[in-house]
Structures are given as C-alpha cells and as structure tokens.
Specification:
Domain PNPLA: 1-127
Motif (DGA/G): 114-116
Number of strands: 4
Helix content: 25-40%
GO biological process, one term: lipid catabolic process
Keywords: Hydrolase, Lipid degradation, Lipid metabolism
Shape: globular
Radius of gyration: 16 Å
Structural class: alpha+beta
Number of helices: 7
Strand order of the largest sheet: 2-1-4-3
GO molecular function, one term: hydrolase activity
C-alpha cells in the first residue's frame, strides 16, 4: 500500500487518484478483480495496474518530480529489493503483490512480492537514499503471533516449474 500511495504522490497524481477511488462503488471494485487460478495468488491485478497506467503513464522512478523508493521482497533470495529507478508501475506492482492474494512479479531470477513480508515498515531504504523532508509509510500489519517462513509461501517446486513453463509459452 505504501508503494502505491507513495508512487502516485511522487508522480504528482494523488488528487486524481483520490478522486477516482472515491467514486468507486461496490460493482466498480468487483470489475477491477481479475481472478486467476495460480497457486501464488488469486488475482493478477492487471485491471488495477491498467487504471494506474492511465493515471500516471509509463514514467521512470528517476524522472519523478519527488524522489521515491519502493520496497519488495524477493522470495528466491529472501531479501528486500529497493526500487529507486526503472518503471514506477513495475515497482508498484511488485510491492502490492500480497502472497496468496495478488500474484508475484517475476523479474529475471527474482520472484517479487510485498516488501512488508520481510519488513513491515521499510523506511530505511528511503532514509538511506534520500534526504527526505518526510517519509510516507503505511503500516497494515496484523501483528500475527505466528511467524511465517518464506518457504511456506512458495508452491511445491514441480508446480512452480510447471507454472513457469506455461508462462514462457507463446
């Protein structure tokens, strides 16, 4: 959620985003849901990302009027990935990929999901990279008493390989 709001804010489009979101009714929200049968998530989020692309365009993070850093988790290497350059929408999409809900982003050898998986409030990348006047951070943790290991979120190896094979086909 932080990458979504922070990225839109950095692009100077937060008022337009707010206006759009405030006009959504229940059916509009349902129309944005694009169900998939992937073991990695129930939604692809392509419809939401299409709306965001119409709003902010195909902008690069390094060209934004306000510096921004978004954070994702690489499930393969089990570490944070900081997006400080490259396509803003790709960074947002990786960061909103809540395991089991929204499918991950496959970027090279990386399988990227919500940065909050490893670090619920990842402000250090922003502090380290920018001399920020303020930091936009969103904490949506449930404070679960049971720890979750990253391996538990990955599908069995044969399922993941089959999924990759299907994705690679023309």
């Amino acid at each position: 959620m932080g990458a979504l709001i922070g990225g839109i804010y950095a692009a100077g489009k937060l008022p337009e985003y707010r206006d759009w979101v405030c006009t959504l009714d229940y059916l509009d929200v349902l129309r944005l849901v694009d169900v998939t049968w992937s073991p990695m998530g129930a939604m692809r989020a392509s419809k939401v990302m299409g709306k965001l692309e119409a709003l902010v365009g195909d902008v690069l993070i390094e060209n934004l009027p306000i510096p921004v850093t978004t954070v994702a988790t690489d499930l393969v290497r089990q570490r944070e990935v900081w997006f400080q350059n490259g396509p803003l929408l790709q960074a947002i999409r990786a960061s909103i990929a809540v395991p089991g809900v929204i499918t991950p982003v496959h970027l090279g050898e990386q399988v990227l999901v919500d940065g909050g998986l490893l670090n619920p409030l990842p402000i250090m990348p922003v502090v380290a990279a920018h001399q920020a006047d303020f930091v936009v951070a969103v904490n949506v943790t449930a404070h679960s008493p049971l720890p979750v290991r990253l391996e538990e979120l990955l599908p069995p190896k044969e399922e993941a390989a089959d999924s990759q094979t299907k994705r690679d086909r023309p």
